Amino acid sequence: MTTISDVAKEAGVSITTVSRFLNGHFNKMSRTTKIKVDAAIKKLNYFPLKTVRRWANEATKTVGLILCDTSSQFSSFLFTGAFDVLHPLGFSLMLFNSDNSALAEEQGIEQFVNHRVDGMIIEPSHENFLAYSDLVIQRLPLVMVDRRVEGQPEAVNRVISDNFSSSFRAGIELVLKGYQRILLVGKVKKTSAQNQKVAGFKRAAKDFRIQVDLANLINKTSEQFGDILERSLGKSYLKVKTAVVVLIEPLISEVLDFFSRKNIYFPEEIGLLAFDDSNWATYAQRGGIDLIKQDSYQIGKRAALNLISYIQGKPNGIPSVDIIATKRIHGSSLKIL
To answer: Which domains does the chain carry?
Structure first.
């Protein structure tokens, strides 16, 4: 989907200039500029979201929700949180799975625009907020969740977990428990919320000169998982006290399976800590796993409440960022102090 930023780049002008052209504000706009913008629009086959402005007084009582992986527990709880706010208010909630694809996300946005939704909640797959600038310019209410996007304006609310601070605290805890190496296991890409977790652990370990490594399984198959984890872990864990930290819930079962096949026992031989969305891991193996529980239900709930305020024209008091606290749940997979 071509965006207004694409048109601006093609024409060699600012996004504001393109917006003024689209809205017929030609004051102080040279003939040359108008020709360049018009040519860029035709060349790129750009269709602005002009209809959005007409919807201001034609509410459809529908909200669009775009999530990156609807098969995850994180997405399930986030959807439920949003639904529990919107449904009693008479809103329908439409769900689109982007599958972590920026292209698929654009298709989802276009579908929601065509369905004339009153607002959108998006877990972004794009790295830069320019991809969403059309929605802001056309004043469609928008809330972003879970991930940080470069260049996001303060006027657009973002609801996230306290990933950095919770990871920093967990990193300090591991240091105090005597761990000398931390191996992070995740699927990390530039837009991923896991980046804040990685940064938090690295910051905690920096002052203590603790080694922090990342086994990044992005775009890897299940068959490759074991080989990558085995290489990342090595045999050093037998000499250097090591803690494995699983950054996302879907990988917990694979790590447990790997430990089982390799006869690696925690907490005797290795420490294990995981980010979880549903608490299921508290019941796994001998008293449960040490967890950091993310509250995606509250993320969805807060995002929906903020979106309703935007839709009702009451943005005052909504912060640029809402941070939802995580909860440390103690199990038996880390060494006791």
So the answer is: 1-48 (1.10.260.40), 163-294 (3.40.50.2300)
